[in-house]
């Protein structure tokens, strides 16, 4: 099995959850390969990089672009991208406190003056609104991309499982749960907790079981 860990905003290839997952698999499941790409890029580049990585890993297994041995684990904004990719190529994915409306939640980085000037000043779309810890310079053009690629459906709900902490202080857990539930995906709501999924290490045995069930 190949697992691609898709990190969230203000994270990177060395995210805590990604490292915990890789170390756990190396110790207890050596047959599982965990890949932790750095995705601090524009959303279009992220989407294309994930597809390219899946293709590359499958080619290494003498396969074409199919996902029988591939699964994504996406956290927060990584959950959004995992859903987007799953919808595109029928790839299984486990989502952790997924973002479902980045075109809305990331608007906090855009001030009213940029929004007001947009129609009159094309340069404003390239103004840096926020720089993530990993170095992605978020611009209004990125927000436009998210607005043009909203999650409207879950095309393969039997390939999606979602873990959501009711104590998520950053994203609305009820909003995320409702979206995936109404599209038929398996959703597990866990009491309390936080957005960072601080007890992720303790849940790794269950996580691996869930991943195997998705394949």
Task: Give an overview in words.
With 215 residues, the protein is of the alpha/beta class. 39% of the residues lie in helices and 17% in strands. It contains 8 helices and 8 strands; from the N terminus they run E-H-E-H-E-H-E-H-H-E-E-H-E-H-E-H. A 6-stranded parallel beta sheet has the order 2-1-3-4-7-8, with helices on both faces. The protein has a two-stranded antiparallel sheet with strand order 5-6. Helix 3 links the parallel strand 3 (70-75) and strand 4. The longest helix is centred in the first third of the chain and has 18 residues, at 43-60. It is globular. It starts with a strand and ends with a helix. The model is unreliable at 62-66 (pLDDT under 50).
Describe this protein with a few key phrases.
8 strands; single chain; 215 residues; alpha/beta; 6-stranded parallel β-sheet; two-stranded antiparallel ribbon
Give a short overview.
By secondary structure, this protein is an alpha/beta fold. Helices cover 39% and strands 17% of the residues.
Break the fold down into its secondary structure elements and pairings.
Blueprint (H helix, E strand, L loop, with lengths): L1 E5 L9 H13 L4 E3 L7 H18 L9 E6 L1 H13 L3 E4 L5 H4 L6 H6 L10 E4 L5 E3 H9 L11 E6 L7 H10 L3 E5 L13 H11 L1
Parallel strand pairs: 1-2, 1-3, 3-4, 4-7, 7-8
Antiparallel strand pairs: 5-6
């Amino acid at each position: 099995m190949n697992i691609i860990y898709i990190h969230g905003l203000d994270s990177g290839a060395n995210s805590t959850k990604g490292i915990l997952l890789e170390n756990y698999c190396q110790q207890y499941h050596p047959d599982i390969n965990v890949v932790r790409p750095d995705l601090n890029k524009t959303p279009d580049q992220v989407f294309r990089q994930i597809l390219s990585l899946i293709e590359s890993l499958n080619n290494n297994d003498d396969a074409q672009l199919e996902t029988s041995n591939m699964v994504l684990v996406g956290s927060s904004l990584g959950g959004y991208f995992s859903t987007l990719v799953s919808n595109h190529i029928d790839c299984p994915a486990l989502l952790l406190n997924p973002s479902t409306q980045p075109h809305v939640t990331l608007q906090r980085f855009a001030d009213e003056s940029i929004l007001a000037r947009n129609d009159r000043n094309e340069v404003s779309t390239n103004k840096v609104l926020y720089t993530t810890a990993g170095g992605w310079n978020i611009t209004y053009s990125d927000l436009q991309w998210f607005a043009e690629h909203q999650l409207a459906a879950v095309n393969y709900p039997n390939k999606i499982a979602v873990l959501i902490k009711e104590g998520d202080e950053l994203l609305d857990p009820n909003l995320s749960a409702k979206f995936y539930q109404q599209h038929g995906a398996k959703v597990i709501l866990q009491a309390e907790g936080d957005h960072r999924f601080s007890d992720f290490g303790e849940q790794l045995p269950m996580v691996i079981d869930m991943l195997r069930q998705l394949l």
